[in-house]
Design a protein that fits this description.
19% helix, Phosphorylase Kinase, domain 1, alpha+beta, six-stranded antiparallel beta sheet, globular, 6 strands
Amino acid sequence: MAQATAPQEPRRLGGFELLGKLGKGGMGTVLKARQVSMHRLVALKILPKKLAENERFVQRFLREARSAAKLRHPNIVQAYDVGQAEGYYFFAMEFVDGETLDAIIRRDGRPPPPKRTPRPWRSGMPSRPRPRSTPRRATTMKR
């Protein structure tokens, strides 16, 4: 008779319960995780230990996370946290359930490039504003 095995404890990293792999890229692996303290699902990007040995990669990883935290736009995931635990650097961000961009491009093809927004001097203004260093013509007023 086979013995029943106890369910495995979920793997953890810091305050996150690791639930599964979402993807992998040049700067790390992205996992689906649950932020225990906030009871929410997150996408957790983890810098591999090998890259974490290089200070330049660590600084680049931290800069990416901090830059993302400054962005507020409906089409950009929200950055929640960045830190280090158990020798791993991590970056927690909003988890968006659905198709990956790669799957959408494979199915529908690449979207057209966005239309450029006209600059003010191209939309009705007679000419581009001159820099202040440009000398102005002397004018005399007649009375």
